[in-house]
Amino acid sequence: MRMTSQREIILEELRKLKSHPTADELYLVVKQRLPRISIATVYRNLEKMSEAGIIKKLEYSGRQKRFDAATHPHYHIHCIRCGRIADVKTIPGRRLNSMISDASGYEVIDDQVEFSGICPECRNRKNINQNTFS
Amino acid sequence: MRMTSQREIILEELRKLKSHPTADELYLVVKQRLPRISIATVYRNLEKMSEAGIIKKLEYSGRQKRFDAATHPHYHIHCIRCGRIADVKTIPGRRLNSMISDASGYEVIDDQVEFSGICPECRNRKNINQNTFS
DNA sequence: TCCTATTTGATAATGATTACTACTTTTAAA
DNA sequence: TTTAAAAGTAGTAATCATTATCAAATAGGA
Fold first, then answer.
1. Cα–Cα distance between A46 and A22 in angstroms, integer?
2. pLDDT-derived band of residue B133, with 50, 70 and 90 as boundaries?
3. What span, in angstroms and rounded, lies between the C-alpha atoms of B77 and B118?
4. Between residues 35 and 74 of chain B, which touch chain A (CB distance below 8 Å)?
5. What's the rounded Cα separation, in Å, for the pair B64 and A3?
6. How far is the CA of A43 from the C1' of D19 (A)?
7. Tens digit of pLDDT for each residue in B17-45?
C-alpha cells in the first residue's frame, strides 16, 4: 500500500479525533488540509486501512459506518440522548470472545459490540441541551 | 396499534423463521400469503413492531437490518463464510450490561452485540460450498 | 529517468430504506 | 347508524450512504 499524502492525512486526522467519525465527517476535516480531495478517496482509504488493520471500522446501529484509529480491543457505548459514542475502558475479565466461542462452536474472529444508554452528562442535565453530538 | 392482516402475517412468518431475515427476505415469504402486499408495508410494520417491543431490530450498519421475533436477551454470531446469523445460547453469567454500566457510568438500556467468525459447518467443509446463506 | 501498478478526483450507479400520495379501513363520537 | 378523524395500505418516487467506473495522475522501484 503506497503512502500517499491523502492516506497519510486521513489517518492523521482520524487519530486526532476521539469521536469515531463517519466517512463524511472525516472528509470535512481532511478537506481543510486537502481542498481538492474527493469523498470517494476518503471512503476508499478508510476501507483499505481497516482491511490492513491500521484502523477499525465500526459497523453499528444507525445509517453510517464509523471509524476508529484505536485498534486495541475495546467496546463502545452510544448515548441515545446526545448521540456521542464513547469508549468503554474496561472489558470483561475473561475475554468475552472466548466465552462466545465455547458457547457457539464458532471460531470467533471479531466482534461488533455496542451498548446504548444515557451518558452521565445527560443523566445530570435532564431534558436540556439534547442532541449536541448527534 | 391495529392488528391488520398484513401485520399479523408478517409477525407469524417472522416467528417461523430462525434466520433473522432482512425486510426483503421476509417480504418474499409474506408475499406467498398476501400477493398484493407492498415492500413498504413490510418495512413500516417491522419498524412499528420493533418500536412496540414485539420484535427486535438488529442493526449492524453497512448491512441490511435484520429482524428477530425472539426478544429475550441473547447475542448473535455471524459466519463470515456462509453468512448465516445464529443465536448464541449462553450469555455471560453476570449480565454484561451491568458490567458495562459500572465501567462507563452510562445507564445501559440496550445492546447490539454481534460476533463474527466461522461456523462449525464451514470449519469442517473447508473451501467448498461457500456463501450458501449470504 | 522511466515504467507501470496503484491511486486519485469526479461522477454515475447501486441498493436499502424512507417519504409521499391517494385510497381504504377502522374507530368512535354525534 | 351516519360521519369524519385516525390509522393503515399499495405503489412508487426520493433519499442517502456507499461503491463502481474511468480517465488522468503519481509513487516508488528498476
1. 10
2. very low
3. 9
4. 59-63
5. 33
6. 9
7. 999 999 999 999 999 999 999 999 999 99
Q: What are the residues facing A78 on neighbouring strands?
A: A85, A116
Radius of gyration of chain B (CA): 17
Q: Based on the domain organization, do A100 and A115 belong to the same domain?
A: yes
The answer to whether A22 faces chain B, any CB pair under 8 Å, is no
Query: Cβ of residue B54 near strand D, that is under 7 Å?
Result: no
Domain that holds residue A102: 75-124
**Binned average pLDDT, 10 residues per bin, chain A of 134 residues:** 95 96 97 97 98 94 92 91 88 75 91 92 71 42
The alpha carbon of residue B31 is apart from the nearest alpha carbon of chain A, in Å, by 27
Out of B68, B88, B105, a domain closes at B68
From A68, A83, A114, give the residue that closes a domain.
A68
How many domains are there within chain A? 2
Residues B64, B79, single domain; the answer is: no
Q: Are residues A12 and A63 in the same domain?
A: yes
Question: With an 8 Å Cβ cutoff, is A28 touching chain B?
Answer: no
Residue A6 CA to nucleotide D29 C1', Å? Answer: 21
Residue A75 sits at φ, ψ, to 5 deg, of -100, 170
Same domain, B14 and B55: yes
Is the CB of residue A59 inside 7 Å of nucleic acid strand C? no
Residue A95 near chain B (CB below 8 Å): no
HSE-up of residue B45 (Cα within 13 Å, Cβ side) = 25
A-chain CB neighbours of B111 within 8 Å are 113-116
Does the CB of B42 sit below 7 A from strand C?
A: no
- Residue-wise pLDDT for A62-71, tens only, equals 889 999 999 9
Question: In terms of domains, do B62 and B9 share one?
Answer: yes
Tens-place pLDDT, residues B55-103? 999 998 778 999 999 998 889 999 988 888 999 987 665 678 888 898 8
Distance of CA A22 to the CA centre of its chain: 8
